[in-house]
């Protein structure tokens, strides 16, 4: 079979790899039917995630069909169409029992495309299959479902819920890539008064507007004055960082009001300065987090019932074997207008 293999910083190749096989009784093997590329994959290629070593198959967002099951898997059958979560969970360790699956102590957490081979391949091994996959209703398409593998639960849990978005809030999302757009979609569930999107790319700001942002700004448009103008001079109630750079994190801390929350979603590969000399007196809360995906069943139910519309997130579609071209498109959103790229069999 073939997969997208990381070769070190800046290197990736669609090439022959060993066949995916059941290695543990709790494993499943899926035929990958739809897969996408995450901004985290770009961080890996940029050398920001040193735990990923050369030779690793990348990817952690897929929908597939089960072709093989380990002997201890009880809730699935060969032929089931499933969402493969970006987080694997043993279900029995201390953190899993608390629903904090991202911190699983028994070989789970974010492992796909990180510490074990991922899902940007023709077939993939999924550990802890009973807890790490979700059977999909017939009416939910592969394209819509794959948005629930990572970006929707990440933005909802690490952004909206950690940020404690409430009705009437002013919410600022710094970074209108797929994660930021998913944060806008899920923040709307809580009826904020204003959703402000900040990004350098006009195409992404237009996408943010289409998905519910009522104010769009570039970093050069004096965002602090604009935010204060919306909030009687106070600043935003919730600011979400959805890029992962020192500059964007530090921008977030300037936009939040006293008593507000900065919810960091982005993946950071470099240190950011925390200006406690300014923040300590303002009662600002800063949250960080890796998604736990405890919200995936609820989000899947909302998607099934038509309460979530993710149809505008996919902008480019490729066959799976064109994944290197898809990476080139996804990595240059300002030129290509790419949001999520979808690859299918």
Could you give the count of β-strands? 15
Q: Tell me the overall shape.
A: globular
Main β sheet profile:
7 strands, mixed
Number of helices: 13
Fraction of residues in helix: 25-40%
SSE succession: EEEHEEHEHEHHEHEHEHEHEHEHEHHE
Radius of gyration (Å): 20 Å
- What is the residue-mean pLDDT, rounded to a whole number? 96
Low-confidence stretches: none
Binned strand content: 15-25%
Structural class: alpha/beta
What is the CA-CA span between the terminal residues? 13 Å
Topology readout:
Blueprint: E1 2-8, E2 11-16, E3 28-36, H1 39-45, E4 62-69, E5 81-84, H2 94-97, E6 123-126, H3 129-132, E7 133-135, H4 142-145, H5 151-163, E8 170-174, H6 178-187, E9 194-198, H7 202-211, E10 215-217, H8 223-230, E11 236-241, H9 246-255, E12 256-264, H10 276-279, E13 285-287, H11 296-304, E14 314-319, H12 323-330, H13 333-336, E15 340-344
Parallel strand pairs: 8-9, 8-11, 9-10, 11-12, 12-13, 14-15
Antiparallel strand pairs: 1-2, 3-4, 3-6, 3-15, 4-5, 5-7
Please give a structural write-up.
The chain is α/β, with parallel strands linked by helices and 345 residues long. Helices cover 28% and strands 24% of the residues. The chain is built from 13 helices and 15 strands. It has helices at 39-45, 94-97, 129-132, 142-145, 151-163, 178-187, 202-211, 223-230, 246-255, 276-279, 296-304, 323-330, 333-336; strands at 2-8, 11-16, 28-36, 62-69, 81-84, 123-126, 133-135, 170-174, 194-198, 215-217, 236-241, 256-264, 285-287, 314-319, 340-344. Strands 3, 4, 5, 6, 7, 14 and 15 form a 7-stranded mixed sheet that branches. Helix 7 links the parallel strand 9 and strand 10 (215-217). Helix 5 (151-163) crosses helix 6. The longest helix has 13 residues, at 151-163. The mean pLDDT is 96.
């Amino acid at each position: 079979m073939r997969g997208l293999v990381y070769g070190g910083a800046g290197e990736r190749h669609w090439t022959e790899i060993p066949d995916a096989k059941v290695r543990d009784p709790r494993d499943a093997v899926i035929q990958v039917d739809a897969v996408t590329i995450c901004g985290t994959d770009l961080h890996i290629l940029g050398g920001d995630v040193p735990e990923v070593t050369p030779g690793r198959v990348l990817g952690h967002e897929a929908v597939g069909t089960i072709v093989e099951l380990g002997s201890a898997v009880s809730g699935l059958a060969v032929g089931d169409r499933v969402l493969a979560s970006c987080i694997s969970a043993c279900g029995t360790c201390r953190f899993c029992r608390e629903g904090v699956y991202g911190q699983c102590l028994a070989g789970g957490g974010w492992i796909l495309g990180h510490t074990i081979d991922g899902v940007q391949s023709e077939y993939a091994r999924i550990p802890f299959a009973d807890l790490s996959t979700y059977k999909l209703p017939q009416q939910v398409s592969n394209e819509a479902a794959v948005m629930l593998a990572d970006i929707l639960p990440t933005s909802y849990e690490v952004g909206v819920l950690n940020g404690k978005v409430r009705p009437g809030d002013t919410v600022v999302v710094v970074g209108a890539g797929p994660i930021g757009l998913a944060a806008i979609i899920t923040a709307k569930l809580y009826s904020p008064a204003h959703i402000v999107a900040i990004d350098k790319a006009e195409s992404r700001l237009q996408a943010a507007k289409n998905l519910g942002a009522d104010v769009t700004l570039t970093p050069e448009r004096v965002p602090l004055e604009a935010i204060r103008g919306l909030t009687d001079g106070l600043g935003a109630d919730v600011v979400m960082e959805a890029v992962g750079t020192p500059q964007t994190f530090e921008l977030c801390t300037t936009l939040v009001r006293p008593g507000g929350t900065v919810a960091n979603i982005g993946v950071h590969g470099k240190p950011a300065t925390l200006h406690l000399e300014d923040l300590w007196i303002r009662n600002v809360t800063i949250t960080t987090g890796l998604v736990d995906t405890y919200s995936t069943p609820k989000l899947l139910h909302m998607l099934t019932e038509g309460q979530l519309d993710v149809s505008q997130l996919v902008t480019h579609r490729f066959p799976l074997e064109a994944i290197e071209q898809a990476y080139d498109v996804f990595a240059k959103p300002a030129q290509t207008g790419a949001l999520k790229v979808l690859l299918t069999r």
